[in-house]
Known about the structure:
CATH topology of the largest domain: Tachylectin-2, Chain A
Strand content: 35-45%
Radius of gyration: 29 Å
Helix content: under 10%
Largest sheet: 6 strands, mixed
CATH architecture of the largest domain: 5 Propeller
Number of domains: 5
Amino acid sequence: MKNRLTVTAGILGILSAAAISLAAEKRLSQSDLEYLGAFRVPQGDYGSPQYSGFNYGGTALTYNPNRNSLFLVGMPWYQLTAEISIPQPVISTDIGRLNTATVLQPFADVTEGNRSNLGAGGTTVETSGTPLGGFLVWGDKLVGTAYGYYDAGWTVVLSHFTSGLNLSASGDFRGMYQVGDTSAVPNPAFIDGYMTEIPAQWRSRFGGPALTGNCCISIISRTSSGPAASVFDPDKLGVETPVPIAPAVGYPIDHATLGSWGDPGTDILYNGSMAIHGMVFPSGSRSVLFFGRRGKGEFCYGFGVSDPSQHGTYCNPSYPTVMCCYDPVNDAKGTHSYPYVFLVVAYDALDLLSVVNGQKQMWDIVPYAAWELTFPVANDNPDILGAAYDPSTQRIYVAEAGGDRPDAYAYMPLIHVYHVNVDLPPTVASVTPSRGPQAGGTRVSISGTGFVAGATVSIGGTAASDVAVVNSTSISATTPPHSAGTVSVDILNPDGQMGSLAAGYTYEGGGGGGGGGADLSASVHGDPDPSSVGGCLTYTIGVGNAGPDAATSVLLTDVLPSSLQLSSASTSRGSFTLAGNTFSWDIGSLTTGGSATANVAVRPLAAGTTGNSVSVTGEQNDPNADNNSATASVTVGGGLVDSVDLTAAWGKLKKSGRKITGRLRVRNSGNVGAGRFTVKYYDSPDATPSSDDKYLTSSTLTQLGPGATSKNLVVRCRASKKNAGHYLIASVDPDNQVVEGCETNNHAAVLLPK
């Protein structure tokens, strides 16, 4: 075949790319995917009366940034969707040593019975099944696709839908929607499967925020003979009909650049045995990665047999016209190309852009590489059923089909985790204080992401002085002189990548820095030191203001290292948030000589010396910024590798008349499940539990899995003059029914409303 692509040492071809600024983005190699390990999905039935489990499931995998979790489909027969947690991945050849996810939301039909309504006008199609093809979390919506399994009559027209992120809610399904038409792609089977976001820095070039695709499914004349993807905007679902698309890559049957169905060559990328079930566009790179499988052997269509001598013969007397194909891992009738491998197909985003911009046809471009993945624990019939991506951690999650077989009837997916080793450009979120005199000399704190040691700061195009990179999210610097006006703040990392905040700082008229300001200081101390893996470690953080002026908008940030797991926190004043491994404390204002303290409870995950740095900022000029940050180093020894760690957090209390209602959630931050335990509630004159506190009531939890959070526990009490200014305290497992590695973080206090 003309222009047929052959595989040579894993490199499939390199095309020249347009000379645009994004060419500086890294094109990934296989070594840039660092294997972090794997984890199991739970066994069991999570939605009777019909079986609702993960057996033979694992498709339509997607990451949920709202809860650091994954959505995926379970048993193929029912096509129901569940949400699971993400435990710590483990590298091991012993599957029994892997951690197991917990079910955060049990299985539900996110299409509310509409999955087969893919025909024109929403009519039901008869295509031997309508599987869910992919998911994408988009804001507060779950965007999904469905496709016809065997659409010989080309009856499928619709493909996409939306639902809410609460799987138990009903009435939030919207769809099915038509995405694209035959003027863009020959059939919906080019776009009704996997999806991924386009990184922010690429969206204006592509003309849209996301990619959607599908390929290599039954009835090859309707789908792509190789990876396919088109640009679309999920926000236009239900707004425009059809939703516009821009093809970026795809191979119609009459333009089978990568190889054709039934090609007997073993050096062909596509011969009919390829399957693609996931797509990822990692931020900071110019690579678009497709995940699936392919066969490396000779193509054969027929029944699989384990005897190689029967290959190419008609050995089944019940089907004398159907050939037998050597395939010891798949005896079904269909395409065979044994042996099979886990596959990643890598494209240059600049090549996809050349198609979107009309410079090339979608079948003109080819991958720059194809990689075979290997796993410590792997199925003998390799297939990747889905791929998900978390841009905040640069992690890729892939679902291996049947990687976990705990018994003779189980074929459970196994989730493997990779880290994309690529340096992201810095981002600038805020500058504090955000204004100062034209003479410069104002000490500012810059918040953002991706700051690297050696980064430089420019304010209004002039280099700032005394630049100190506190950590990856905080930089302090002194403003240079500048004329009055609002200017940009730019961060330049040593690798040449830049982040900017337009209108980030304002120079005001009139004079120098003066002798005033608020001298904020931060301190941090870890106890106990030494600590132990799985045990208790509490950081006591202090913030003070030495004046001479009062400080406002005081904010302390503590970004914990990955060797520590954030459990809970309490503060003497202000409010705080816990997001991932970041403790953000909004103190508010501090008078001259004022101070505030916080206690942050963590769980050490690894032995060694760990450093925890905190930094504080305020709205005023700080005459001595050298004491705005502090670091505590603690030695962590070996200890409880497996343990329970129970913590609690209050939601906002509500008052109606004299009745006060509170909602509490309990979390098990450990890696071992907790059995039955009790939560007791007390009325206390202060936020510190004591034996003199008044007992109110209790709640009982029967179990709480590792990494799981309970449903809201509702607590009611009455307001009175006696408890004015008191605290409602929750004490988790005060009777020690559960053995924990750390019990100093088992209390949560909230001020009773007046």
